[in-house]
Amino acid sequence: MKFFSYIMVYRRFLLVVLTVLVLLPLPIVLHTKETECAYILFVVAIFWLTEALPLSVTALLPSLMFPMLGIMPSKKVASAYFKDFHLLLIGVICLATSIEKWNLHKRIALKMVMIVGVNPAWLTLGFMSSTAFLSMWLSNTSTAAMAMPIAEAVAQQIINAEAEVEATQMTYFNGSTNHGLEIDESVNGHETNERKEKTKPVPGCNNDTGKISSKVELEKNSGMGTKYRTKKGHMICKLMCLCIAYSSTIGGLTTITGTSTNLIFAEYFNTRYPDCRCLNFGSWFTFSFPAALIILLLSWIWLQWLFLGFKYQETVTLVLFILMALLWFSRDPGFVPGWSALFSEYPGFATDSTVALLIGLLFFLIPAKRLTKTTPTGEIVAFDYSPLITWKEFQSFMPWDIAILVGGGFALADGCEESGLSNWIGNKLSPLGSLPVWLIILISSLMVTSLTEVASNPATITLLLPILSPLAEAIHVNPLYILIPSTLCTSFAFLLPVANPPNAIVFSYGHLKVIDMVKAGLGVNIVGVAVVMLGICTWIVPMFDLYTYPSWAPAMSNETMP
User: I want to staple 474 with a disulfide (CB 3.0 to 4.6 A). Which of 328, 353, 360, 426 is the partner?
Assistant: First the structure.
């Protein structure tokens, strides 16, 4: 037993060592660039799926192993770790930092509560709408972490208010005393009651009896080990938790910057198919917003059936937020010329990251408040100003681990391309072309949805994109036909508390059991995959001409692995 306990303690170390050694015969025996790249791909995939090493550390392995095995020079690998995506991420994080610093997210949430009222059904829809909206621009983790304390406080207020109403009604109909109120009065007016007892004693009657019995009853109720007065109160808590968790994920589907999987897909797609200029912030929103809206509404209905809210800084942050969104949408909307046409001399130079960086710089420039000091004469004078966000605040929000992780994925994809592994995978998967395209999409979507429950979303999409792209090229299908639904389905990690950070955050409040999340999440997963399949077969088709193999996608070569 002691031996097994040591194994459990050092299981991650053993997994790293064994993975490297067990797969080592692959490049040693075959000794081709394809097999050497496949060896690195398998090692990175196993480390990402098991998280034997931190995801960002694993993402650095291609920069170490590609030069050692002669697949790519170190300078070329390093260039993959900082691309246009990272500039876009920096600008978005500037926005997110200012939103949270000046509590704009709380203002939006509380305003929503004021609009929809305290009815649990409409309140849930209001929270889901505001959380999904925030998740379009912030990470789903940050959104859930910011929204959950507000939802928890509101839920507790509703439960307490309903309990007081019920107690008042019981007192009225039964003519009995509300012990909860009596205890409060005896506690708050303790000295008064004592004084009354001393001045007006009642023969043969002990006035403390009612207090003692009330206190005993209170202790008995408090010792029951339950946090909920009624089953309905428990259901409201469960409902509020899951509506925050799911809407913070669903909202991220609607924008390229809404979730890391969308960003990874967009950068990978634009890198692999540079001649296709069909994918940008506006086009992504156009096809994903209807799908996300349907998923959000159906999830709200499903959860209801299953379980029963400016200051100056806020205003400036909101204005910059709206300005960033408008510039993203209007850069190249497709149906009319966008503002990028003003720079027709340099087509394709200005991207979404250009907008993000421009607005991001304004957050460091625009004054938020004056910094004052007291002179020796006692006069208070301004000597400087503080911007909307500082570099230190930005650094605390910037997910450098995701930036490195994405860079590792790009490096891995470049290695697969350079070594010929992508072509080899595509050729081997070409027999799947005999299956109907909708069935291939459904299989890949279900595979992605299943894998993302046990692996992180960024790791899942980073691992599968270099596999699904050659598959689409091999069967001569528009790559967007398979990659778009697979990317969206990567976010459908609704089943388990460990599936994604929002699930873990709401689970930590103790209202939910794992079985609650499995039952609810299974329904949302089914709804999500079904809506994505519906969208990819209907309104998304004409947007990207998915039935036609595009000229920007390469034809697969006849190279095979020796």
Answer: 426
- Statement: residue 196 has pLDDT above 50: no
Q: 45-91, pLDDT tens digit by residue?
A: 888 878 888 888 888 888 888 888 888 888 888 888 887 767 767 87
CA count, 13 A, side-chain hemisphere, 175:
0
Q: Are strands 367-374 and 380-387 parallel, antiparallel or unpaired?
A: antiparallel
The H-or-E segment that residue 283 falls in is: helix 281-307
Structure tokens at 413: 């994809």
The angle formed by the CA atoms of residues 522, 252 and 309, to the nearest 5 degrees, is 100
pTM of the model: 0.53
State both tokens at 493: 């990690």
Give the position of tokens 């303790």.
190
Q: Is the dihedral of CA 31, 33, 34, 36 positive or negative?
A: positive
Give yes or no for a contact between 401 and 55, defined as CB atoms under 8 angstroms apart: yes
The residues near 339 (Cβ < 8 Å, ≥ 6 apart) are 327, 330, 331
Q: Would you place residue 526 in the very low, low, confident or very high pLDDT band (cuts 50, 70, 90)?
A: very high
pLDDT band at 305 (very low <50, low <70, confident <90, very high): confident
Helices (H), 136-230: 140-174, 179-188, 190-199, 208-222
Residue 373's H or E segment, with its range, is strand 367-374
β-strand partners of 371: 384
Fill in the amino acid letter for 51.
E
Q: With left for phi above 0 and alpha for psi between -120 and 50, is residue 70 left, alpha or beta?
A: left
Q: Which two tokens stand for residue 249?
A: 């994920």
Q: Could you tell me which of 88, 34, 81 has the C-alpha nearest to residue 60?
A: 81
Strand (E) or helix (H) holding 524: helix 514-537
Cα dihedral 39, 419, 58, 78 sign: positive
CB 204 within 8 A of CB 214: no
